[in-house]
Each structure stands twice: as C-alpha cells, then as structure tokens.
Specification:
Layout: E1 8-12, H1 15-32, E2 39-43, H2 52-56, E3 76-78, H3 95-104, E4 108-113, E5 117-118, E6 124-125, H4 128-141, E7 144-148, E8 172-175, E9 187-191, H5 193-200, H6 217-232, H7 235-249, E10 259-265, E11 268-273, H8 279-288, E12 299-302, H9 310-327
Helix pairs in contact: 1-5, 3-4, 7-9, 8-9
Length: 328
C-alpha cells in the first residue's frame, strides 16, 4: 500500500514511538556511514508526538510542550509554508527552509515534517509544491527526509498517503492511528532498503530499538483487519463525497464574527476562530447535540469516519455553528 521504495518495516507501539524510531533510524544511519549528525530540520507549527525526541521536533512555542523548553534537544526550525493547498504556488514560500537546510546541511541527519497537513500544530493545509521542493532540496544536500503520516495516512487527505499529492517518496515514513482504526495501539516506521542496509551494516549490526510490544499478535490482527476493510471499500469515493460536502457546508460559517477562516481537504474539516474556544462550554454543547468534537486553541475541527452519512456530517457542522454562536 505504501510507496514502492519503502520496503522495510519496523513495527512499534504508538505514533510518538514511530517518530522516535524514525529519528533514531536517521541518527544511526549517519553513524554507520562514519559521519555522525545530531540535528534535525523541521517546520514551525509542526507536531510529532508527546515523547521526548518527538517533542524536540515539535514547534517549541506553538504547542502544549512549551514547559519542556530547556530540557529538550534544540533542533532547527524553518518557517512553515504560507501557500494554502488550493492557492497559487509562490516560490518564495520555500526560501527560509532552503536557507536553513543549505546553512546547516552537514549537521542535519534528516528533515522531518507532516506532509500537506500540519495537524495538532494548527490544522494547516499547505501547497504540494512545498513538499516537492523539500524532497528536491533533501536530495541536493544529501539529507534524509522523514514524512510523519500518522494523522494523514490511509486516505485521510483524499490520497492513500498525503505525500502522493506531491508525487514524492520519503526515505522514512511514520504511520499510526488509522493503521488499526484506533482500536489497538500500534504504529510502524518504514524505510528504504538502502537506509535499512546502511543502518544494519554499521557498528551495532542492527537497528537499536526494541519495544516490548512491537508487532504483538492482537494489534497485528486488528491492523490487518483494518487495512483489509479499507482496501475492500470504495474509500476514495467516500472521502471525495465528504470533501464535496465540506465545500458546501463549511463556507457559510465564515459569516460568523468569531470565525477567522474555514478550510478542508479530503475528510478533514477545520474552523478557525479569532480567539481561543472555551473548550469546556462548547464540548458540553456538543454532547447535548449528540456529537463528539474535540476542539483545541482556536480550532474546531472534524476528521470523520469515511462511512459517515451526509446527514451525520451536516449534524456535526450544525453543532459547530450553533456551539460557536452560543459560546463565542
């Protein structure tokens, strides 16, 4: 299901650990080639998980991890893309990233980013050309590229994997969440044969990570069932229908004074407000309306199951509208 070059799979416990594994994989790769590197280049507004290495490549100023500043390794952060997914591409959008990579290439083990959709750091939908340029620059400077598809993988953006919007393949891919449909904790980190063989050809002779529950039979069975279900259903049509519904029912919410913007892609719908939402009050409203929506900061977003009906999707958006009217 994944891009063809990603032939080697390392099973692990959760999305955060998938990122930890990816970062360790990149570090061990450079150690094996005799050129140890300790820095990662990532993007502002990014989010990669709650464990320590994952937190270190998450935006240090725009996340729930601010209080860990000073304890975490310090990496290099480039400006996040400003060109939206449906905007006209502006080449200047990649300039800060290109500058940061060019200036620090000999220190950087890998670039890590969320392809196309920056999730918990702002639900930002960016232009595929940005990702394409990142791949080109990583190739130019000889730096590994890690794509964190924990939130975007398995069809969420309308493509099976979000990196397909840009027609690129990363050197390392992180997967989780939809791998088991949320029923069991399980994740995976995939890489190329070249990276895997380089890692295993180094001093250690293998990849140095061994989680207790990796590939446990129950989680593996659940993952197999979830992936089979996805492959057996017309998920592309279902996600396209959700996107078309969002395009119809989200724009009217822009008329609310409290709403800054609305955006959508595939089975992701986002309402951004001017000021932070009162989560306790609006969630109480949602429960009264028979829906479960989990806002954070200035964002009220939904990532519904692909088999949601049009009526149910409208119920979600109507609850968001009435909730914002009553609470904001």
């Amino acid at each position: 299901m994944t891009p063809q070059a990603l032939e080697k799979v390392f099973l692990c416990d959760s999305g955060s650990i998938s990122v930890e594994v990816a970062l360790k994989m990149a570090l061990q790769y450079w150690h094996a080639v005799g050129s140890p590197r300790a820095k990662f280049l990532t993007l502002r507004h990014g989010y990669h998980g709650d464990s320590f290495a994952a937190m270190s490549v998450t935006d240090p100023d725009n996340s729930m991890h601010k209080l860990y500043k000073g304890f975490l390794p310090e990496h290099i952060f480039a400006d996040s893309p400003e060109c939206g997914f449906f905007d006209e591409w502006v080449e200047e959008d990649i300039s800060d990233f290109a500058s940061k990579l060019g200036d620090n290439a000999d220190q950087i083990a890998a670039v890590i980013l969320e392809p196309i959709v920056q999730g918990a750091g702002g639900m930002r939908l960016y232009h595929p050309t940005f990702l394409k340029r990142v791949r080109e620059l990583c190739d130019e400077f000889g730096v590994l590229l890690i794509c964190d598809e924990i939130a975007t993988g398995f069809g969420r953006t309308g493509k099976l994997f979000a990196c397909e919007h840009a027609g690129i393949t990363p050197d390392i891919l992180c997967l989780g969440k939809a791998l088991t449909g949320g029923y069991m904790t399980m994740a995976a980190t995939l890489t190329t044969e070249h990276v895997a063989n380089t890692v295993c050809g180094g001093e250690a002779g293998c990849f140095m990570h061994g989680p207790t529950f990796m590939g446990n039979p129950l989680a593996s069975a659940v993952a197999n069932a979830s992936l089979s279900l996805l492959q057996q259903t017309p998920w592309q049509e279902k996600v396209a229908a959700i996107e078309a519904n969002f395009a119809e029912i989200l724009p009217p919410l822009k008329q609310l004074d409290c709403v800054k913007s609305v955006r959508w892609l595939g089975a992701i719908g986002v309402v951004e407000t001017h000021t932070p939402v009162d989560v306790e009050k609006i969630q109480r409203h949602f429960v009264e309306r028979g829906v479960w929506i989990r806002p954070f900061g200035k964002l009220v977003y939904v990532m519904p199951p692909y088999d949601i009906s049009t009526a149910q999707l409208k119920q979600l958006v109507e609850a968001i509208e009435s909730g914002l009217k009553s609470v904001m």
